[in-house]
Design a protein that fits this description.
The protein is mainly α and about 150 residues long. It has one domain. Helices cover about 40% and strands about 10% of the residues. The chain has 5 helices and 4 strands. The strands form 2 sheets. A two-stranded antiparallel sheet has the order 1-2. A hairpin with a 4-residue loop joins strand 3 (about 90) and strand 4 (about 95).
Length: about 150
């Protein structure tokens, strides 16, 4: 991404702890593959899982969803954005669908192609709709959530 100013996006409304994610200025975010001129740093699944778990420590089910949606992958081993196999418009660790969400994310200054932007937009979706956007993968994350809750 090019220059531009950074804006802070609060992690959660009314949360007892606040995490801030910095996102690019809306004027330079278009949310297309062309926006990622320099490939993002390749993050292995273990590193990505730790980032997701920390970011969503106030909403642990989102870490389970990330695992089920992408197996904790933001990029492939070559640094390309991880895409869904059923729908290639689902991208990143949280599998945000660009057909439905790219325009809104861009207006908010969120780059879905970065791990920070992908998680920030997922948080907004969760705050607005709960887990409904990830309902198709619920057979995977509901049992995982129950197991984690027992531990």
């Amino acid at each position: 991404m090019g220059g531009g100013t950074l804006a802070a996006l609060p992690a959660a409304t009314g949360a007892t702890t606040t995490t801030t994610v910095y996102i690019a200025n809306p004027s330079n975010v278009k949310n297309t593959a062309d926006d990622v001129k320099d490939k993002p740093k390749v993050l292995d699944a273990t590193t990505t899982a730790a980032i997701v778990k920390e970011y969503f420590k106030d909403i642990p089910i989102m870490a389970n969803i990330a695992f089920c949606e992408s197996r904790d992958r933001q990029t492939d081993t070559d640094g390309n954005i991880f895409r869904g196999t059923v729908n290639t418009h689902d991208i990143g660790v949280m599998q945000i669908n660009t057909d439905y969400h790219a325009d809104e994310a861009a207006k908010l200054g969120i780059n879905l192609y970065t791990i920070e932007g992908n998680m920030a937009y997922a948080r907004l979706l969760f705050e607005r709709e709960g887990t409904r956007p990830w309902k198709s993968s619920s057979p995977c994350w509901i049992p995982r959530s129950n197991l984690i809750a027992i531990k």
